[in-house]
């Protein structure tokens, strides 16, 4: 662990020396940083990729603008390099979710090592860490659980804070981080969400394939039939299928297999029609695995590539990613609007009065929220009033 910490600290100091962490005051400096960082990202420089992600995640507006420019330049350069590929982007995005303690980080390290060793793939891991509502900080310790994978030259592991108040298992800028990893030419981007529950399905708006990790004692078939994150999974993995938990894992495998069969029975007609047209269809699967012993990991790697080939053949990846970008557009627009709403002077003054009224139970929170929006819209329509 100490070795990993030394390398991480050395990487951080190198990025500071290379690009500087002080305020960028001139357009020439900004242009120089954008060109050097974006070129480094496309060349596969992990230090420059880390710096680009830092710009994208920053809460400072000037850094976020620089991050947006770096992303645009890197994507253009990568698109030019990939112009000869008829299938478009070669990167597969795999979202890996599961309840806390199911072994996501250990599983991802074992999976990543298998992809690099057996398939010679370049693997990027984005590990989302929960953020404290009190301190607004995050431990970002998932990388310490992937010490072996972090040392591989064909791997990139980046812990990211989810951000206080952001639900769904991802961070607000996770989509930009994924795009930067794609621009860097990684074949697989593994997105580890925070520990999630049944209704947190945001990972479907960023991943091509959703893998759900479940513990051996994850409940009976009724638990699997419940809608939510289970029905969005393309692959359900019963993890920790070793030792005393092997029999429990086999029962969970049987239960979830039956549940998925019931859940996806409505798509049988569409699947039959596709087969008549000789177009292969991916059917959600349930498998057992053990990150500790390596059981089932090689088969899961094979399934990832099978899924990618099927989706490309059907043309689903292009359509899915267009829909995902549209969803993130609205999500970020909502975030920017809320920030402007909270920062507006007239809104903040009225919010103090409304808070007192709410404390006296004189109005509902819905009515108070409506008043805040009305004040904000009126202020925007009046040129003399400024936030």
Structural overview:
By secondary structure, this protein is of the alpha/beta class. Helix content is 55%, strand content 10%. The chain has helices at residues 2-19, 27-42, 46-57, 61-81, 104-119, 147-150, 174-183, 221-225, 229-232, 246-263, 268-276, 297-314, 316-343, 345-359, 365-381, and strands at residues 92-97, 123-129, 155-161, 188-192, 209-214, 235-238, 285-288. The protein has a seven-stranded parallel beta sheet, with helices on both faces. Strand 2, helix 6 and strand 3 (155-161) form a beta-alpha-beta unit. Helix 2 crosses helix 3 (46-57), helix 3 packs antiparallel against helix 7 (174-183) and helix 4 (61-81) runs parallel beside helix 7 (174-183). The radius of gyration is 23 Å and the shape is globular. It starts with a helix and ends in a 6-residue tail after the last helix. The mean pLDDT is 84.
> Major sheet: size, sense and barrel closure?
7 strands, parallel
Helix-strand string:
HHHHEHEHEHEEHHEHHEHHHH
Helical residue percent? 40-55%
What would the principal axes of the Cα set say about the shape? globular
| Ends apart, CA distance between termini | 48 Å
Question: What does the average pLDDT come to?
Answer: 84
* Uncertain regions spanning at least 5 consecutive residues: none
The beta-strand count equals 7
Radius of gyration, in angstroms, nearest whole number:
23 Å
Proportion of residues in β-strands: 5-15%
Number of helices: 15
Strand arrangement across the biggest beta sheet: 3-2-4-1-5-6-7
**Class by helix and strand content?**
alpha/beta
């Amino acid at each position: 662990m100490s070795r990993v910490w030394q390398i991480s600290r050395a990487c951080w100091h190198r990025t500071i020396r290379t690009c500087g962490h002080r305020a960028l005051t001139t357009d020439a400096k900004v242009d120089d940083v954008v060109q050097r960082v974006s070129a480094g990202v496309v060349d596969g420089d992990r230090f420059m990729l880390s710096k680009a992600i830092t710009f994208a995640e920053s809460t400072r507006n000037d850094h976020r603008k620089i991050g947006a420019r770096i992303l645009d330049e890197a994507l253009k350069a990568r698109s030019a390099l990939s112009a000869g590929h008829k299938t478009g982007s070669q990167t597969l995005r795999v979202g890996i979710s599961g309840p806390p303690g199911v072994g996501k980080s250990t599983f991802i390290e074992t999976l990543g090592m298998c992809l690099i060793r057996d398939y010679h793939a370049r693997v990027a891991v984005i590990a989302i860490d929960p953020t404290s509502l009190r301190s607004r900080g995050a431990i970002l310790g998932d990388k310490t659980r992937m010490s072996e994978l972090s040392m591989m030259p064909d791997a990139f592991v980046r812990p990211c804070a989810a951000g206080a108040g952001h639900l769904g298992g991802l961070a607000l800028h996770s989509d930009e981080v994924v795009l930067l990893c794609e621009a860097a030419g990684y074949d697989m981007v593994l997105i580890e969400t925070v520990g999630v529950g049944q209704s947190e399905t945001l990972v479907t708006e960023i991943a091509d394939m959703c893998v759900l990790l479940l513990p051996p004692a994850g409940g009976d078939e009724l638990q699997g039939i419940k809608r939510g994150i289970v029905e969005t999974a393309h692959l359900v993995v019963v993890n920790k299928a070793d030792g005393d938990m092997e029999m429990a894992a086999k029962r969970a495998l049987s239960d979830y297999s039956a549940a998925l069969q019931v859940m996806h029975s409505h798509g049988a007609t569409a699947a039959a029609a596709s087969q008549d047209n000789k177009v292969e269809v991916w059917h959600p699967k349930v498998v057992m695995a053990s990150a500790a012993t390596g059981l089932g990991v090689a088969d899961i790697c094979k399934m990832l590539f099978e899924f990618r080939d099927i989706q490309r053949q059907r043309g689903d990846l292009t359509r899915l990613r267009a829909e995902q970008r549209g969803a993130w557009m609205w999500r970020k627009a909502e975030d920017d609007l809320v920030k402007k709403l909270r920062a507006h002077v007239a809104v903040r003054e009225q919010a103090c009065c409304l808070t007192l009224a709410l404390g006296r139970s004189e109005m509902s929170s819905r009515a108070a929220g409506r008043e805040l929006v009305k004040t904000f819209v009126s202020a925007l329509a009046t040129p003399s009033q400024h936030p």
